[in-house]
UniProtKB/TrEMBL annotation:
Family: Belongs to the KHG/KDPG aldolase family.
Quaternary structure (record): Homotrimer.
UniProtKB keywords: Carbohydrate metabolism, Lyase
Species name: Chelatococcus asaccharovorans
NCBIfam families cross-referenced by the UniProt entry: eda
GO MF entries: lyase activity
Pathway field: Carbohydrate acid metabolism
Protein name (database record): 2-keto-3-deoxy-phosphogluconate aldolase
PANTHER family hit by this protein: 2-DEHYDRO-3-DEOXY-6-PHOSPHOGALACTONATE ALDOLASE-RELATED, 2-KETO-3-DEOXY-6-PHOSPHOGLUCONATE ALDOLASE
Length: 210
């Protein structure tokens, strides 16, 4: 499987996470995020219309790395593949999910917390992992240790992250990118949103040393 997506996610450095309620609202948010400079976006497959949003965004933004989030089972893998995602992200890892993902054409970034989680992922050949939920677990401190214990493994911390937390992750060599919804939290649709998103994206990249 090609690993060029890893370079793209690392270059993006920041990955906004979008939950889907209304299809038009979620699609408009993705449009504004792209206008604001997002190069990688995770769309959570947590609601019935989310695959439709992913499919629409695939057509509208072929240049953006689109991740299907909350892929927790074989059905989710099927939805992600069918919608045209580039990569799948899950909050954790099970043998059934690993089997479904490894027989699909898409890479999987499974969620981990413990050393055992990282080792289980490694047994399936998975070495780009989501650290979730990051902030409640002091991910930056743990990931500093994991850089020594698991030197070949890269992490994408997400969960509860905001701008103030970013400097902690900037210097960690095993942090590929950081994901979260803080980039668009509280921003209402309208003419000023793309500029606000652009500011948030630039500031996040700056704080992460991109
Ligand atoms: C998720 O998978 O739900 C996200 O990691 C949550 O990120 P957030 O805390 O920034 O919304």
């Amino acid at each position: 499987m090609s690993r060029e997506w890893i370079g793209r996610l690392g270059a993006a450095r920041v990955m906004p996470i979008v939950s889907v309620g209304d299809v038009d609202a979620a699609t408009a948010l993705v449009d504004d995020l792209v206008a604001g400079g997002a190069e990688a976006i995770e769309i959570l497959l947590r609601s019935p219309r989310a695959p439709e949003v992913l499919r629409l965004c695939r057509r509208r933004h072929p240049e953006v790395l689109l991740a299907a989030g909350t892929v927790i089972n074989a059905a989710g893998v099927g939805l992600a593949v069918e919608a045209g995602a580039d990569v799948m992200i899950s909050p954790g890892l099970t043998p059934a999910l690993a089997a479904a993902a490894l027989s699909s054409p898409l890479p999987l970034v499974p969620g981990v917390q413990t050393a055992g989680d990282v080792m289980l992922a490694a047994e399936y050949g998975l070495d780009v992992l989501k650290f979730y939920p990051a902030e409640p677990n002091d991910a930056a401190t743990i990931l500093k240790d994991y850089a020594n214990v698991f030197p070949g493994t890269l992490f994408v911390p997400t969960g509860g992250i905001g701008e103030a937390a970013l400097p902690k992750y900037a210097s960690l060599r095993n942090v590929l990118a950081v994901g979260g919804s803080w980039l668009h939290a509280g921003l209402l649709p309208g003419a000023t949103r793309p500029a606000a998103l652009s500011r948030n994206m630039s500031e996040a990249r700056r704080l992460l040393g991109a």
